[in-house]
Design brief:
This protein has 356 residues and is mostly beta strands. Helices cover 6% and strands 40% of the residues. InterPro entries: Carotenoid_Oase.
Length: 356
């Protein structure tokens, strides 16, 4: 198995099986989904599905994807990798983000792949939407004859150019935060039973409380629009992964830059479309990590962890512990004399083996 690059966010089943996807640039660029059996090495991975890019020299960029009980789903968005620029970037002295092009007039395509067969669902149809950009999938699940997909979406890809390390230096961070585009928590619903008899120009989504639409507009396309659930900035999402990834769920926790003064952690209820928020003057939290209560009975039984830096001189960084249900502070652990880097991603391990 040979791939040219892989996404940042892998998935794993409850039995330890790993699912990932990446690009293959050789020949006509393609998207490759592969699976590594539990307890095996990467070299033992097997390709499950290969989907050709719709552009011969410009495969779409992606950072994450989703899995459900029966499907893989990924987004082919119009932020594309310019292979010619990639091949010459070292000679020209340009960075990888400079090798990305955004085509706002192109559609987003949702690819749904059957996990058992590796075949694309409804090969003769395309699920599509107007252009947007996404880094992070929140979660996805099957609901009757529909596939529900939750994403952190931006109106365009400008954010790529605004998250360099220099933009978060002490002298630039306030201006960066003031002008940083805000991601929205957007829910798309894809009808899985579409066929040649499906009527055109009719919303195929009949999900109570949802504003998402999916309309067959031509013989081969289903145009989708999202239900935008949270608009004040929602990134670095997490859920109760082991129990609810790929399954119907209610709560997601995210990182929210609302202004240069308000950097918050947010809990969103995707059913009631309400939210809870933690923020504190001068505090800069990191990605929230949900840790379920092993004795809990409800989805949000547990705690949310975040490493927090202070912009106030002399204030020690701390590990923040929030109640997963009420989103109120339960504890904080301070680390005097320790510097915690402003990070993007982290994870929680139940046990850590160490050798002294």
């Amino acid at each position: 198995m040979t791939i040219s690059s892989a996404v940042a966010h892998v998935h794993w089943d409850r039995d330890g099986t790993i699912h990932n996807m990446g690009h293959v640039y050789e020949g006509h660029p393609s998207y490759c989904i592969f699976r590594v059996p539990a307890g095996s090495d990467f070299k033992d991975g097997k390709v499950v599905s290969t989907v050709k890019s719709r552009w011969k020299f410009n495969p779409g960029y992606y950072h994450s994807f989703s899995v459900t009980e029966n499907y893989y789903v990924f987004v082919e968005q119009p932020l594309v990798i310019n292979i010619l620029k990639i091949l010459t970037c070292r000679i020209r002295g340009i960075s990888i983000p400079d090798c990305l092009d955004y085509w706002p007039d192109e559609k987003v395509i949702f690819h749904v792949i059957d996990k058992a067969t590796g075949e694309k669902v409804h090969e003769s149809f395309e699920y599509q939407s107007d252009a947007f950009f996404t880094f992070h999938h929140v979660n996805a699940f099957e609901d009757g004859d529909s596939l529900v997909l939750d994403l952190c979406t931006y109106n365009d890809a400008q954010v790529i150019k605004k998250v360099y390390m220099k933009d978060f230096s002490e002298e630039n961070v306030e201006e960066t935060l003031k002008n940083l585009p805000k991601a929205m928590l957007s829910r798309f619903v894809l009808p899985l039973t579409v066929n040649q008899q499906t009527p055109c120009d009719k919303n195929l989504i009949e999900m109570p409380g949802s504003k998402a639409t999916a309309i067959r507009t031509t013989d081969t396309t289903v145009q989708c629009t999202p239900d935008v659930i949270y608009t004040k900035g929602f990134e670095l999402p997490t859920v109760s992964y082991d129990l609810y990834n790929g399954r119907q769920y209610r709560y997601s926790y995210g990182f929210s830059i609302q202004s240069e003064k308000v950097i918050a952690l947010v809990k969103v209820d995707l059913v009631s479309k309400t939210s809870l928020q933690w923020d504190s003057p001068g505090c800069v939290p990191s990605e929230p990590i949900f840790v379920p209560d092993p004795n809990g009975s409800e989805e949000d039984d547990g705690v949310v962890l975040s490493a927090v830096n202070s912009v106030t001189e002399g204030e020690a960084p701390f590990l923040l512990v929030l109640d997963g249900k009420t989103f109120t502070e339960r504890a904080r652990v301070q680390f005097p004399g320790v510097q915690i880097n402003r990070d993007l991603h982290g994870f929680f391990r139940k046990t850590v083996e160490s050798q002294l």
